[in-house]
Every structure is written in structure tokens, then in C-alpha cells.
Amino acid sequence: MLRYFPIPVMERRFLAGAVPIEAKKYIPIPFETLAHDYQAESMPPDATGKPRLGVLIAVTQNKNLANITGLLDSLGLKLIGLEVAPCSAQRVWQAVAPAAGPEPFVHAHFDGGNIRIMICDRGLPVFFREVFMGETATLDDQRKVDMTGCLSFAQKQLGLSGISKIKLSGTPATLAPWKDAFAAETGVATEIIDTAKLLSIKGGDWGGYAAIGASARPSVPSEVSIDLATKDRIGEDERQVARDIIVAGAALALFIALVGIYQTLTYSHRAGELNNYIVEPDISAALSGL
């Protein structure tokens, strides 16, 4: 599951505690049963002008993660990364059909009657919706797909504006009617992406393209850094906290050392002054018996 939502701007060291609390509003599954990872990026201010962070979070059941790692261990393989399908599929289309500019865009993929709608902004899939309508989807199902509603949600809730294009992928022969229908419905330029041809393969579906994208994670640059396999690893936030503690400890140790040096020098100076005093003979004789 993938979700994107806004939170107030805060120091990064507070995100690890704040993000799961806020995510519970958008994920209707007990959070203690989930493995998760997230990344936070700046996003447009809200209606009152307050700055915000946009949080992209991916979750999966803990048991799914355990099953995957167990299977790979049994095969003698090492898990180097784990991400949800929209992030992986988006990496494929970013590589074979990159966006022409920085404007957000929509990508809708058709597998028969299964439709996945993804809105991407600055390389991140900030909106994802799945619509399942049986074996095939026809233009009679256009209202169920509700492309206008998707764009409206992105504009009102996520602050996205200027969506420049709608890209369609799937079986090219079935996409032409949808291309014209979406263009007429939304007024946004719409084009068809022949993913299989661009990848030089005979054909493919959502799962296959996601698998290709996941396998390309180490070699294809992407703005998505989410990795569900980092559950037991030290993250960048934890590393930053550790660095802060080390720096603070070093600064405190240096302060204590300087205070000690100052006290030692002060003692030596005053001891030298005492040694320079001339003691009168009669006083020395009087003190010698004490």
C-alpha cells in the first residue's frame, strides 16, 4: 500500500515519531502489524500559507516481509531492497518514457478491466488508485474510473496544479478510445505509451513491469528512496541522531578538558606566587613547631 499526505514542517529527527501517527489517518490497518518506510519532501504551502512536508509512505504486512526474506534465505539469496509495485512500475516508465518537463502528470495502466492510476510529481508517485472492473473495461465504465475526480483530489488535497499530460499504457489496440475520452473529459493532453515496444519485449502486464522496475532499482536513478527492507537497518535519521550525539559528546568532553586545563594553570600560577613570598625568620621559627 502506498499513501502520500501532508504534515507540518518539522525537524527531521521528529519525523520517525510523527509520520506513523499521521499515517494511521490514511491507512485503515493496525499499524503495529505493518512494516513501513517513508520519505518526506517539501510541498506547496496550504491555503493559509503555512509550509508543509509531503510524506510518501509504503507499508506491507510484517508477515509478508518475513515470508519474502525467508524464501530468499532458503534460496541462498540476499534481499537488497523491497518496494511497492507503484514505485517499481514508475521507475520503468521514468526510464523508457521520461517526462518532458517538471510538471506533474498522470499515468494510467490498463490490464483488461484492472486499471491503475498514478499521479507523479517531481519523480514521486504521490497518488495511486486501483479500479477493478472484471475482465475488460469499456467506455461505459468511464464514470467509475473518474479521471476528473483523481485530478480534482490531487489539486485540492495535494496542492498540485498544472498537470501537463495523461499517459496511457497497456494493450495499445484497446487504448485509443480511452485516449480520446480522457482528453475530452479533462482537457489534458493524452498520449499512449507502448511500454512493451520501448522495452523490446512481446508484451507485459502491471506485475511484470513492476518486477522489471524493482530489478532495475540498483542501476536506474529514481527520486524514490523508500525501501521496506530497511526495517532492521539503521536509517539516515538514526545516523544523524548518532552523529549529533557524538558531536555533542565531543563538545562536552572538550569543554571539560578546557576547564580542567584552566583550573590547573590557575593552581600553578597561584602556587608560584605563594612560593615567591619572603617569610620572615621569626614567623618561620614560630610556625616550625606547629
Q: State the domain count.
A: 3
End-to-end Cα distance, whole Å, is: 87 Å
Spatial strand arrangement across the major sheet: 6-5-4-7-8
Radius of gyration: 31 Å
Query: What's the CATH H-level superfamily name of the largest domain?
Result: ATPase, nucleotide binding domain
CATH structural fold name of the largest domain: Nucleotidyltransferase, domain 5
CATH top level label of the largest domain: Alpha Beta
- Overall structural class, as computed from helix and strand content, comes to alpha/beta
Name of the CATH architecture of the largest domain: 2-Layer Sandwich
Give the count of helical stretches: 10
Mean pLDDT value:
83
Principal-axes shape call:
elongated
Major pleated sheet: 5 strands, mixed
Give a nutshell description of this structure.
With 290 residues, the protein is of the alpha/beta class. The protein contains ten helices and eight strands. The longest helix has 40 residues, at 236-275.
Task: Reconstruct the topology from this structure.
Layout: E1 2-8, H1 15-23, E2 34-43, E3 52-61, H2 62-74, H3 85-96, E4 105-111, E5 114-121, E6 124-132, H4 142-145, H5 147-158, E7 166-169, H6 172-186, E8 190-192, H7 195-199, H8 206-215, H9 236-275, H10 281-288
Parallel strand pairs: 4-7, 7-8
Antiparallel strand pairs: 1-3, 2-3, 4-5, 5-6
Helix pairs in contact: 3-8
